[in-house]
Amino acid sequence: MRASNLYAPTLRNTPAEAEIASHQLMYRAGMIRKVAGGMYTYLPLGWRVIRKIEEIIREEMDAAGGQEIGMPILQPSELWEESGRWAAYGDEMMRIKDRHGRNFCLGPTHEEMITDLVRDEVSSYKQLPLMLYQIQDKFRDERRPRFGLMRSREFIMKDLYSFDKDIEGMNVSYQKMYDAYTNIYTRMGLEFRPVEADNGAIGGGHSHEFTVLAEAGESNIAYCTKCDYAASDEKAALSPIEATDENELPLEKVATPGTNTIESLVEFLNVPIEKTIKAVAYQSDNGKLVLAFVRGDHDVNEVKVINQVEGALELTMAEDEAIKNAGGCPGFMSAIGIKPSEDVIVLVDPTVMNMHNAVAGANEVDAHYKNVNPKRDFNAEGIIVTDLRMVKEGDACPHCGASMKMTRGIEAGQVFTLGTKYSQAMGAMFLDEQGKQQPLYMGCYGIGVGRTMAAAIEQNNDENGIIWPRAIAPFEVVVVAVNAKKEDQLAYSEEIYKECKAAGFDTLLDDRKERAGVKFKDCDLIGYPLRVVVGPKAVEENQIEIKVRKTGEMFTVSREEYLDKVKEILATL
Questions:
Q1: Cα 296 to Cα 245: distance, rounded to the nearest angstrom
Q2: What angle do CA 117, 123, 126 make, to 5 degrees?
Q3: How far is CA 207 from CA 135, 413, 422, in A?
Q4: What is the rounded average pLDDT for all residues in the chain?
Q5: What is the DSSP string of 433-491?
Q6: CA gap 231, 207 in Å, rounded
Q7: Whole-structure pTM value
C-alpha cells in the first residue's frame, strides 16, 4: 500500500466532542468518522486494526474448538419473551416493528437466538460439547453514548456460546475460553488482568472480565499484593472486619439536631466515624424498598445490593414517603424497629453486625441511638446479613488476607457461565446417557472488538499520538521517502518497500510529495511501530535510518544490514 493512494485524512486539531485519548487519536489519525451519536464509520487504517484483532480472535477461538457461524442482527420478540427478557432488558434494547406490526429488536446480545438454534438441532449427549461463535455488529441504545468506540450504540462483538451436558463440562469449556482470552490479549501485546466480575443483565453464575489496564478506564479493579486475586470493585468480595470486644451498654436515645449526614453526626457527638452506622435507602424497579446498612466510613456497593433483590435490574434513591411508610426516618434511619416484609428488604453488612456500642439513627427526626449493638438490637425477623460494602485500597484480600490495591482498567472482554438459565426457560433439552431429558449447560464469552482497539490506544499513546503494539498495528513498518519529488530517493524507497514486503513485513510506503516533517508527524500520530527513512544518506552512502515508535530509539544501518535490524526490532515489539 502507498500512502499517496491511502484514504487517511489526518487532523492536527482535536474535535471538541472527543474527551479521551482513544477517541481523539482515532479521529486525528484518520481511523474513524462520526455518523451520528454513538455510530462511526471505520476508515481504512482503523478497519485494518479491526481486522487484525478479529484475526487473532478467530485463530484462538478455532484453536479452542469454536466454530464460527453468522446469526441475524434482527431478532423476533418471541424469543426474548420466552426467556423473560423482552420486558426486563430495559431501554437499552433497540426495538422496532415491521410493516405487519410484529415486534423485533436489533440484537444487543444473542443468548436467545443461539439457544433457539441449538434446541432444534441438538438432542443427544453425543453431540456435546459444542461451541459456536460469531463476530458481528450489535446495538444498544445507550442513554449517553460517549468516548468514541468505548461506549457506542453500534459496536462489533465476538460472542461465543458453549453447550455442555453437565456442570463439569460447562466448567471445562469456561476454562478453555479463559485460557483462549489470555492468549488473545497476550498476543495483542496488551497489559491486562482477568478480574472476577458481576454477570449483570445476562445472568448466570461465574464470570471474569478481561480488563486492559489504563488510567482512563471506567472500571475500578481491586487486586491482591500477595496472591493472584483480582476483582472489579462491583464484584470484590470482602470479609467482615472484626471489632474490639466491649461490654454492651444499654441503648440510649440522644438528641442530634440537624445531623442528617454521617459527617455532621461525627462532629456533633465527637465519635469516630468507625463507630457509626450508615443507612442508604433504594427503590428497585420491581417495587421493593431496599434499606442497606454499612459502617459509617464505608460506601454501599449497589451491585451487591441489587443482587439481593430478585428480579430487579435498576435501583434509584427511595422517596422520603416510602421510607416513612416502612417505619424509617430519612436522614435518621436504622434497622431498629423496621420490620422486613415482601415489599421492604433490610440488608446489613456483616461488619456492622460485629460492631459494639455504635451510633445509629433512631428513626425519628433529630435523634440517634447510642450504644447500638447490632447482634442484640437488629433483631427483626427477615433481616438479611450480606456483604454490601464497596472495596477500597487497603482492604484485606478475601483469599489470603493480604492488603489489596486499586487500579483502573477498561473491560474489553468477559466470560460467563450461564448454567441452565436460558435452556430451562426456552426448553433446550437433550437426552443423557440414561435416556433422561436434561437441560443444556451454557456459557457465554464476549469480546468488544472496537472497544479492544480503543483500549489498546488508551494504554499505548503519548503526546505525539498512538503507539500500536505490533500485532494489531495498521502496518508494522512504514518506509518514508524524505523527498519523494526526487526520483532517486523515491526509486530507492520503492526498492526498500518491496524488500520489506518480500521479507513478510506488513509495510506501507509513504510516497507522498509532502514535507518530511509532515510525514514524520503523521507516522507518530498514526503509530506505526517502525519507521524506515530513505533520505540523501541512503542514496549517497547506503545508510538507512530506523526509528522505533515505542521507545524513540534511532538506528542508522547499512543497506545490507537493515532487514536483519528491522526483523530484530519487530521481534521485541
A1: 19
A2: 115
A3: 21, 11, 16
A4: 94
A5: TTS-EEEPEEEEEEEEHHHHHHHHHHHSEETTEE---GGG-S-SEEEEETTTTSHHHHH
A6: 10
A7: 0.85
